[in-house]
Input
Amino acid sequence: MKDLLVQLRQQAGFVLKIIIAFTIIAITSSFSINISEGGGLTPEETVKRYYNASKNGNFEEAYEYISKKFNDGKNKAEWSKAWKEMFAAGQVVILETIVSPAKINKDKATVKVKNTSKDIFNPKGLVEYEIDHLSKEDGVWKIDETEVLMGN
Output
């Protein structure tokens, strides 16, 4: 009986190792697929990460989600510095960002965004509706421009 228990434990250990190996393979395969597809970010994820980085004052990271068209020929340091100064001068604070599902047409996408923020002119807060226009740049979704909508 003791030998049978030892044998079962060894088999269970072997099965557990196989399960762990398959799990690791599945995770790394998924990760490599995401990287090969431009990080795997959807247009919505790109927009969320851009606004989250901006909200946190991390414009170096925000720069990673904008296109060459949006950065207006500025390198990361120049663009980040300009946006930091603009947010500081305007006392801009992004409070909440809600992103709607994207409408995708080949290598172009639009994402509707509802931003709640406050600034020097609107210290109690302001809701702003926007449409972010994205395109694929080197296989990765990037924000080309932000269109601010008036009204709802």
Notes: Confidence is low (pLDDT under 50) at residues 12-38. The helical segments are 2-36, 43-55, 59-63, 76-90. The chain is about 45% helix and 30% strand. The radius of gyration is 23 Å.
